Amino acid sequence: xxxxxxxxxxxxxxxxxxxxxxxxxxxxxxxxxxxxxxxxxxxxxxxxxxxxxxxxxxxxxxxxxxxxxxxxxxxxxxxxxxxxxxxxxxxxxxxxxxxxxxxxxxxxxxxxxxxxxxxxxxxxxxxxxxxxxxxxxxxxxxxxxxxxxxxxxxxxxxxxxxxxxxxxxxxxxxxxxxxxxxxxxxxxxxxxxxxxxxxxxxxxxxxxxxxxxxxxxxxxxxxxxxxxxxxxxxxxxxxxxxxxxxxxxxxxxxxxxxxxxxxxxxxxxxxxxxxxxxxxxxxxxxxxxxxxxxxxxxxxxxxxxxxxxxxxxxxxxxxxxxxxxxxxxxxxxxxxxxxxxxxxxxxxxxxxxxxxxxxxxxxxxxxxxxxxxxxxxxxxxxxxxxxxxxxxxxxxxxxxxxxxxxxxxxxxxxxxxxxxxxxxxxxxxxxxxxxxxxxxxxxxxxxxxxxxxxxxxxxxxxxxxxxxxxxxxxxxxxxxxxxxxxxxxxxxxxxxxxxxxxxxxxxxxxxxxxxxxxxxxxx
Length: 523
Description:
This protein is an alpha+beta fold. Helix content is 29%, strand content 20%.
């Protein structure tokens, strides 16, 4: 095998075995390290298999998921086809574990969260990896965990990977990371997250496990700082790492004539950019026009088990008020005479003069107790003393204050438990380095938070790579407001050059983040 590929790339190592061929680290004419996968004939003798593989590579090239080893070029030399990726393919997590490396807790947690975010971005585009394991997780020199050969094996075999494959593969990956971690609490956290992802299944399982893992990982010392991951990549340098074999893919029935993979139509490369979600892009990453982006978070799926039937309380019927029958003695008491008819007086009394009465006649006199009560004078009203009036005033004032406090507490509780807003995307605008000759400048770092248009509050914080943090901040959004900008003002003083990185991390309602790098220089 020659030391160059197509006259453009120089081989730097003996290579390691992959799923569909051999991975090599190569160098460009500018001295930048890339990955090169030499496709073997055994999996591509079938023209249909070769076409499916080319379609899978092209789909990922158009999508440009930042957490993948993205194909940026294809070289055909002789009977071999080479896929050139944007970063070196070594070292892998499998190589690190085979060398007996003990993973620090922050490194294990970063690898777990990086891979979960990449898998979810694939799912958002209706794609999946399908064969996730430690052999396909690459630790880049930039301190990120990248996935290689996403869906390649399924494309050759003619099968379709799905979120279920990824949830199970990620669970097994976390189990191996836990075995290599030296911290007992982190081991337990990784195993619980893997079990949760596999129990729920699919994208919903990955989303739930990632939220749990990200929230708990904030307590791990060094989580979010990628210096330890960069140190692991430097320690397991691809030039000195021993090749680690991976099981080959069972190829479909071979055809009579070897066929190389069809060319991959990749758009021209654009300048490098940061990886959304807080994961830095691989070193020397080549981006497509438009840059990498993160879509809205994957919604959680409906649980498989049907919810229990709600039992409605039995409401008793309103009790009807039944009034007893009342006699109408008053109507009969005055009925001694009727119109046009005389009634003779009693036999034993003298005959009085006859008087005609009309209608019901004279009503009877009220009972004596009613007359006495009507004639009795009302009791005199007792005047309140000044002390009692003051006490009553303060009592009323205290009641109003308690009602206001109770209302505020209830409103706060309602806001916290009915915060309907969901963050769909977090980006930090690339910072243009200051061009002034002064060595005392303020840099305005602008972050853009995109939402689903619901109302609520967003809790966030700014992190700087010099160790400074803004602390938890809140940003309220109104219903229908789908984006909001937040700012970080970073002051630089003195002469020299400094590589700066600002990270915008969303704490509530869900954990997500974005970052941007720039260089301050003053001579």
